[in-house]
Design a protein that fits this description.
single chain, 333 residues, Replication Fork Single-Stranded DNA Binding Protein, two-stranded antiparallel sheet, 9 helices, 17% strand
Length: 333
């Protein structure tokens, strides 16, 4: 029979988790989930400039790499989990994972594996939702929303900006343009190819301008993953190697750095070996980065796109692929 103290501790833990979930929900409400729209509907949005005046664009590019693992160490559930880690190319640095993966596309037997580990690209915008088809979506107190835009929609935005008939920036407060996100279906998947800019210019309303004055624009760079430290780069490399080898995610080794979405880890600690680096000011501890809850927008890989088997990294096949990869590296050396 449980003691009163044990029951109280359990109830407190449940309350803490509930509070955390509530806080997460409130924080995420700034992101407008247009992907939840029904097929055949559309949302009209008005993009705004980046709060960072040094940014020439009104968006920020985000590059992530998904690392699949064959379950979690210590769990009876063998379901595959995924961990998202920042791609160093997002910080205009060489990405060691992509450096290796690019070479895989030279070997047809490794192409599928290369696609699985290729970077996933998306774009962060901000603005107002002017026409909202989502009945259960509630506008937060700050009506300036953030948008996670897929490469398909971004290609439309980018190409339209080169149109000489567009004379002003679409983000101009007085002569800007609305953008209509249209959701249809193609080949069994959501399709946004009929999205586009409005034909007529329009000014922001007094209410919208007052909202910008009251809340200020977001600095979009703040919503990109933080640049990994040297220690975190080593952890990313270690997780990449483990993922390719078909091993499960180890929360004891990596839980304090990066973890799958929703995985609860009690008192994660950072490895002293991973933290070893030249003498300098000790880095401040940071919360482990979880997989983003927004849709994992796919980025086309260097080679022709094909469907990837979900079991590419499982069992003996993963070991065979890893052996081929290492063999190619040794020959190159």
């Amino acid at each position: 029979m449980s003691s009163l103290a044990a029951i109280r501790a359990k109830l407190q833990a449940q309350e803490n988790r509930s509070q955390q979930n509530q806080e997460r929900s409130q924080a995420d409400s700034a992101i407008y989930p247009f992907w939840n729209m029904a097929e055949g509907t559309s949302a009209t949005v008005r993009f705004l400039p980046d709060g960072d005046s040094s940014n020439s664009f009104f968006w920020r590019e985000r590059n992530l790499i998904k690392l699949p693992f064959a379950g979690v160490v210590g769990s009876n559930d063998s379901k595959e989990v995924q961990v998202q880690v920042p791609c160093m190319e997002m910080y205009e640095e060489n990405c060691p994972i992509l450096t290796e993966v690019r070479d895989w596309f030279k070997d047809k037997s490794l192409e599928d594996m290369g696609r699985k580990y290729w970077k996933k690209k998306s774009y962060i915008f901000q603005g107002f939702v002017r026409q909202n088809p989502l009945g259960d979506d509630k506008t937060p107190e700050n009506p300036i929303r953030r948008f996670v835009i897929s490469p398909q929609i971004f290609a439309i935005i980018k190409s339209s900006l080169m149109d000489p008939e567009i004379e002003e920036l679409p983000t101009d407060y007085l002569r800007g343009l609305d953008f209509k996100i249209v959701k249809t279906q193609k080949g069994g998947y959501a399709d946004y190819s009929t999205s586009g800019w409005a034909r007529k210019e329009s000014a922001l309303t007094e209410v919208e301008q007052a909202a910008i004055e009251a809340h200020s624009l977001f600095n979009l760079k703040e919503f990109l993953p933080k640049k990994p430290t040297d220690a975190e780069k080593r952890i990313i490399r270690e997780m990449f190697d483990a993922s390719v080898a078909g091993r499960p995610y180890d929360p004891e080794k990596w839980g304090a750095y990066y973890k799958p979405w929703g995985l609860q880890i009690s008192n994660p600690t950072r490895s002293e070996a991973a933290e070893e680096q030249p003498r300098q000011a000790a880095p401040q501890p940071r919360k482990a980065v979880e997989e983003d809850s927004t849709p994992p927008w796919e980025e086309q890989t260097p080679a022709k796109e094909v469907k990837v088997s979900a079991a590419v990294t499982s069992g003996d096949k993963a070991q065979d692929i890893l052996a081929m990869i290492r063999s190619r590296q040794n020959k190159a050396a």
